[in-house]
Design a protein that fits this description.
This protein is an alpha+beta fold. About 25% of the residues lie in helices and about 20% in strands. It has a domain at about 10-75: 2-Layer Sandwich (Beta Polymerase, domain 2), CATH 3.30.460. Strands 1-4-3-2 form a four-stranded mixed beta sheet. A hairpin with a 3-residue loop joins strand 3 (about 50-55) and strand 4 (about 60-65).
């Protein structure tokens, strides 16, 4: 984006599965970058949360619902800009280990003589 736009150097484009997910992604990005010393200059779209824009100056993050992302097609609009695609890592399969069967011994109780 550096050579194509004076608005910013980088666009980050991401998708969420629901408005709650989009808000959570936005909050997490804003919090993480704030902890690293980056200041959030402007935010748009929080109320509807179908598209939230986070402006950090040189970097602008666009977080969409999947349908909204497809409709606006920023990747197509900026198709001549260099792009890198990242896929969400697949969750690791949990390995369920079988526990060795233990024989439960009956508890010993003291016997009293009558």
């Amino acid at each position: 984006m550096k050579k194509m736009s004076s608005v910013c150097d980088y666009f980050v484009v991401a998708s969420g599965t629901s408005t709650t997910h989009v808000r959570a992604l936005s909050d997490n990005i804003a919090r993480s970058l704030k902890e690293k010393g980056q200041s959030l200059r402007h935010i748009e779209g929080e109320r509807e949360a179908s598209w939230i824009l986070l402006d950090f100056g040189d970097v602008v993050c666009h977080i969409f619902l999947k349908e909204t992302r497809a409709f606006y097609d920023l990747e197509g609009l900026w198709s001549k800009a260099p792009q890198e695609h990242f896929e969400e890592p697949k969750p690791r399969k949990r390995v369920v280990r079988k526990r060795a069967a233990r024989k439960i011994k009956p508890k010993r109780t003291k016997r009293t003589k009558i």
